[in-house]
Amino acid sequence: MIEPFTKRDFDAAYADFERFWPGRRGLRALLHPIYLYQFGETASAIRDGDELVAYLLGFLTPAAPPEGSIQMVAVGEDRGGRGLARHLYRHFEAEARRRGAAALRAVTTPGNLGSIAFHQALDFEAVEGDMRVGPVPVLTDSAGPGQHRVVFVKRLEST
């Protein structure tokens, strides 16, 4: 069951970062408390008892109409392959639609083929970039010099 992401969840995700992001400590800066204190209404968690097993940190932009932005989704490495990330994305999409969002956005690195395939399977499309890396367009230097990113968007139909 999906529930709101709490301070306890934030602490667990931070303390046990390696379980969610093995070998990717550089991503820890993305796990920022702003997603709890400022955007907590749209951050979600899946727990098994008291154990955090997956989470999604996302927010809606203040634009009119808003867009949903997914900062990070993580599933404990011992829980992968069960559709938890997909379940969290669908939950976030439903909430974004409920709040009138026109689109969802997500960003990944060009080398993260698993993330690219995941987003494509959920009907996200890569935004046109200034070069291609493998199967997708890439925005060069979009996260700083030498830091290329794939930006995905999913247009939401008005409901």
Secondary structure blueprint with pairings:
Elements: E1 2-4, H1 7-15, H2 17-20, H3 34-37, E2 44-48, E3 51-60, E4 67-75, H4 84-98, E5 103-108, H5 113-121, E6 125-126, E7 131-133, E8 136-138, E9 150-155
Parallel strand pairs: 4-5
Antiparallel strand pairs: 1-2, 2-3, 3-4, 5-9, 6-9, 7-8
How would you sum up this structure, described in words?
It is a single chain. The model has no long low-confidence stretch (mean pLDDT 90). The chain is α+β, with helices and mostly antiparallel strands and 159 residues long. A hairpin with a 2-residue loop joins strand 7 and strand 8. The two termini are 25 Å apart. The strands form two sheets. Strands 1-2-3-4-5-9-6 form a seven-stranded mixed beta sheet, with helices on both faces. The longest helix is centred in the middle third of the chain and has 15 residues, at 84-98. The chain has two domains: 1-98, Gcn5-related N-acetyltransferase (GNAT) (Aminopeptidase); 102-159, Gcn5-related N-acetyltransferase (GNAT) (Aminopeptidase, 3-Layer(aba) Sandwich). 26% of the residues lie in helices and 30% in strands. It has five helices and nine strands.
